[in-house]
Structures are given as structure tokens and as C-alpha cells.
Amino acid sequence: MFENLSERLSGVFDRLTKQGALSEEDVKTALREVRVALLEADVSLPVAREFVKKVQDQATGQAVTKSITPGQQVVKIVHDTLVDVLRGEQDPGALKIDNPPAPILMVGLQGSGKTTTTGKLAKRLKEKEGKKVLMASLDVYRPAAMDQLAVLGTQIGVDTLPIVPGQKPVDIAKRAKQQATLGGYDVYMLDTAGRLHIDEVLMNEVEQVRNAVDPRETLLVVDGLTGQVAVEVAEEFEAKVGISGVVLTRMDGDGRGGAALSMRAVTGKPIRFVGLGEKMDALETFEPDRIAGRILGMGDIVALVEKAQETMEIEQTERMMKRMVKGQFNMNDLKMQLEQMIQMGGMQGMMGMMPGMGKMAKQVEESGMDDKVLKRQIALIQSMTKRERANPQLLQASRKKRIAAGSGMEVSDLNKLLKMHRQMSDMMKKMGKMGKGKMLKQAMK
Ligand code: GDP
């Protein structure tokens, strides 16, 4: 079910966001979960395996890039790979119906929504493309099916081939072709008989019809709710009759996204349309983005990832604040501050927001500091060792030279940074001594 997959992935990515950048182990753990989730969503094992491998190849390349949002990075890769696998080469809605009259053969199991889809598609061709369409039912086993198509035809204003009792399917197909030619139709649609299961008789019959009319499109209609079964049906039809595309019905229900994914991967045939209800206009062209989003529960995850990140930032900031007022403001804290400043629209904006920093903000403004400067300062801190970051007072001349050289800057740049750190650190200590109430008052001045 969609829910399971998206929930499961949410959990995985939630855990991912609690950590720093993407490590290979992170990606592996996440992908194990992705695979299980895909299997639960009724994606077949080989397809899930291949899919996960694709994502891994993509992700491993990016694992080195330090990302502020590793969860999003993986979500994006999984999403893009899904879209990639689902997308066919051609525009799914563009049916080959030039050279009138163009035959469209509709095949599938009984109850898959074949007759309904025939009507929906005829309506679409008539209204959206201005085509003159003829529909014919070849279901000689169930007279009710023939009547059903005739009723639909009346409802949507599309002609149906008159019913002649006792005719064989292949003969009805030939009659439809004749009538379509004589009547100047652009398209004639043949709604073949379905069975509960695939059998020889059904396949032979469809083959005969195919040979008689040489269809431009053979669309397989499958019930999207049947998951893996739908994929097996598609494989059979592709092997025996050859199909040009798939219509997934009942995608309005809480269907499994897995069917769509497996279908595409196993048969190599594009999904052309999706059925989204019983009404005659509940048919849409297949959009990989939308299905991928549905499979992933994309919106949810992205929101979740963002929330997790927010919480993480708040926690970090609180911890830093506590240390700062105790006079333990070190280079790691400063680096985090600088990074946040970039995120929050530069130094001025940030300084302006901090209590007691109004004057400094002005200095910053005068000195013309911008993101570039902030990034250079971050680079300086990155050139420091862990110990140096924790204890900036260790920084004597030789260390300073090394750090400046390591980040491609001058010692004077480093001195400026250290001065700034001292000033900030003093300010924090003062504020800490003042206590909360006074700090607020000071901030109001
Ligand atoms: P056929 O035996 O393959 O021709 O199946 P039908 O066209 O008679 O459809 C069987 C049932 O499924 C009917 O009640 C349809 O209204 C319903 N149905 C077909 N397509 C859809 C769909 O996309 N969504 C929903 N919810 N119901 C559908």
C-alpha cells in the first residue's frame, strides 16, 4: 500500500536527518529499508533489487558531498530514480491514430475495467482530439458486456457497432473495420472479451483479431489494485499478443504504487493512462512524477525532513547558547554561527537579531562583509585541528601560519577572525553574568 511505503521511508529518512552528512553506511541502511518497503508495496524482488542498485550508484557518488540535508538528498535520488524507471520514451497520451481508420485493440482480464476504459478513451479522443470514434464489443460470451458498451456509447455520444448475434469475434472485428472505413471514422476501438484467468482460448482469439485488423495500438487494461498479478498478466499478454502500452485502472483507490513500478520494469512497456474512478472522464495520461510522488509520499517526507532539521538546529543552538553563557564559546560554535548566518541572509541580518550586537552589525555593514567573507572564515576554521577549534587559545604563530596557508589566506585574516571570536565570546560572558532579565533589558535598549 502507498501508506506503508511512505511511512516506512519517512522513518528511514527521519533517522538519516538526525545525523550529519551522508555516509556510505547511512545510504546502505536506508536502501535496505527502501528495498523492504518496495517489496511490501508489491514490487517484485528483481525489480526492487535493480531499483535499489540504481539508487545506490547515484547516491554513492554524492555521498562525499557534504550536504546540510542528507535526508532530502536521498529522497531526491529515490524520487528521481523512480521517475526515471517509470518514464517511457514517448508521450504516454499520444496514441498512434493517424491513417484513418486506426484500430485500437483493448485487451485484459474480465473485471479489469476494460469496457469502462474503452468508453473513457473514446470520449477523450472525441472531445480532446476531435476524432470520430466507433466502438465495438467482441465479447460474444457475455451479451451483457455488449449491451454495456452500447449504453456507454449512448451516454458519451460515441457510435457503437450494431450487435449481430452469433458472430465470431474475428468476424465482428472485420465488420468494425469495414464500417469504420465506410463511415469515415478516424478510430475504431475493439473491446475484446476478458476471462477470469489467462487461457489458451482467450489468447488465440485475441491473436486472430490482431492478425485480422493489425491494430495501431494494443492497450492492456489491468487492475492497479491487483499488484503483482497485474504484472504477471502484462508479461503474458506482451509475450503472446504484444502490447503497445498499459492502462492502470482503480488508481483512485489506495492502490499499490509497486504495480506501476514493476509493470514498467518487467514488461518494458509504458503505462499510458491511469483510471481514477468509474465516471467517464476519470482517465488521465500517466505522469511518472505524480505516481513517484504517490509511491514515496514525497510531500510528507520532505515536510518531515524539514521538521527534523529544524528540531536539530534548535537543539544545537540551545546547547551552544548554554555553553556560550558559561564562556565556552569555541571555534566550532563560531563556525555553526557563520553557517547559520549565511542561511539567514548574511551577517548583518544575524547580528541585528542578536541582543547587544547592533553596534557590531553596523561595523559589519561598514566593513562590507558578505557571504564570501563568511565562507572564507568558515574555511579558516576548517583548517584548524579538532583541538584548536575547541581551544582557540592554542593558536600561536606557527599554528596560525599553517592554518592560513591551509585555507589559502593570510595570518591577518585569521587574526581578524580570532578577534571577532574574542569579542563575541566576551559579549556572551557578560550577558551570562547579567542573567536573563537584564539581558532582555539590554536587548531592548
Ligand atoms: P471489464 O470486465 O474489464 O470490461 O470491466 P468493466 O469495465 O465492466 O469494469 C468493472 C468495474 O470496475 C465497473 O464497476 C467499473 O465501473 C469499475 N471501474 C473501471 N475502471 C475503474 C477505475 O479506474 N476506478 C474505479 N474505482 N472503478 C473502475
From TrEMBL:
SMART domains listed in its UniProt record: AAA (SM00382), SRP54 (SM00962), SRP54_N (SM00963)
Coiled-coil intervals, chain numbering: none
Keywords: Cytoplasm, GTP-binding, Hydrolase, Nucleotide-binding, Ribonucleoprotein, RNA-binding, Signal recognition particle
SUPFAM superfamilies per the UniProt record, alphabetical: P-loop containing nucleoside triphosphate hydrolases, Signal peptide-binding domain
GO molecular function: 7S RNA binding; GTP binding; GTPase activity
Topology with respect to the bilayer: Peripheral membrane protein
GO terms for biological process, alphabetical: SRP-dependent cotranslational protein targeting to membrane
Family as reported in the entry's similarity comment: Belongs to the GTP-binding SRP family. SRP54 subfamily.
Assembly: Part of the signal recognition particle protein translocation system, which is composed of SRP and FtsY. SRP is a ribonucleoprotein composed of Ffh and a 4.5S RNA molecule.
Domain commentary: Composed of three domains: the N-terminal N domain, which is responsible for interactions with the ribosome, the central G domain, which binds GTP, and the C-terminal M domain, which binds the RNA and the signal sequence of the RNC.
Function of the protein: Involved in targeting and insertion of nascent membrane proteins into the cytoplasmic membrane. Binds to the hydrophobic signal sequence of the ribosome-nascent chain (RNC) as it emerges from the ribosomes. The SRP-RNC complex is then targeted to the cytoplasmic membrane where it interacts with the SRP receptor FtsY. Interaction with FtsY leads to the transfer of the RNC complex to the Sec translocase for insertion into the membrane, the hydrolysis of GTP by both Ffh and FtsY, and the dissociation of the SRP-FtsY complex into the individual components.
Protein name (database record): Signal recognition particle protein
Organism: Ruegeria faecimaris
